[in-house]
Structures are given as structure tokens and as C-alpha cells.
Amino acid sequence: MSKSTKIQIYFYSILIISIIWLFIFPKPIKNFAPIIFGVPTFPVFIFNFRNKLEDFSSALKNKLPDLFQKYVVDYGISADIGEIVDIGVLFSNEDFENLKDLELYEMYILCKQSIRLAFLSFCIIALLGFATVYL
């Protein structure tokens, strides 16, 4: 089983538990469903994204320094000057999508998956909050 599949199983199992929580428990306890979902998902995926992005950036710097220099982001003097690449969070990056190195490509896919699941979990927290009011 790949890392990507394990991450998806983790996400969807917590989502299913939260939805079941909504329908099984009475009103005061059902209000905790967004917390039951939000605590083990959103922060985990945000920190996982940051960790995977740092790993991807350092591996890219070592294996393909020209591609690293093309996408490196300068965050200023406060943190990681020239150490992080812009993977294109909202859009796909053709250079990274066509990586020949399988290890780099897998790291790139895990970065994209982590930030997408973090965004999705943030939206689902809000939806579960609305559901606790109207169910």
C-alpha cells in the first residue's frame, strides 16, 4: 500500500467517523463532530505539507539544481532563504508533473495531496459545523 493511499484512508476514515458521530449522538454531543474531524485532519495535513515540501525542496536541490533555481522562493530574512520551491499549490506545474525521477515525482505528489486534503478538511469542518446546527 502506498503512502498516498494510507493518507487517503486516514482522511476518509476520520470523515466517516465524524459523519456517524453526527447521526448517532444527541444534540449536545453531536456539536463536537467538527472538532472530532478538525483536530486530527487539518493541522496534521498542514504540518505534513510543510514537512513534505521541505523534503521535496532539498531533494530537488540535490538532484536537479537548475529546476530548483527556477522555482525557488525567497521568503526573506526571517525563514528559509532560498530553501523552498513553489510547487504550484493551486495549479499544476508542468515541470514537476513531468519529472523523470520517480522518487522526486512521488514527493511532489505527496506535497500536492497534503495541501489538497488540508484545504478539503478546512471546508469540511465548516460543513460539519453547519450540519450540527441543522441536523
Summarize the structure.
The protein has 135 residues and is mainly alpha-helical.
Describe the structure.
- With 135 residues, the protein is an all-alpha fold.
- 75% of the residues lie in helices and 3% in strands.
- The chain has helices at 3-24, 27-30, 33-63, 65-71, 94-97, 102-134, and strands at residues 72-73, 84-85.
- Helix 1 runs parallel beside helix 6 and helix 3 runs antiparallel to helix 6.
- The longest helix is centred in the C-terminal third of the chain and has 33 residues, at 102-134.
Could you outline the blueprint of secondary structure elements for this entry?
Elements (H helix, E strand, L loop, with lengths): L2 H22 L2 H4 L2 H31 L1 H7 E2 L10 E2 L8 H4 L4 H33 L1
Antiparallel strand pairs: 1-2
Attribute tags:
single chain; mainly alpha; two-stranded antiparallel sheet
Radius of gyration: 18 Å
Beta strand count: 2
User: Structural class, judged by helices and strands?
Assistant: mainly alpha
Strand order, main sheet: write it out.
Answer: 1-2
**Sheet having the most strands:** 2 strands, antiparallel
Helix-strand sequence: HHHHEEHH
Distance between the termini: 37 Å
- Number of contiguous helices: 6
Q: What overall geometry do the principal axes of the alpha carbons give?
A: elongated
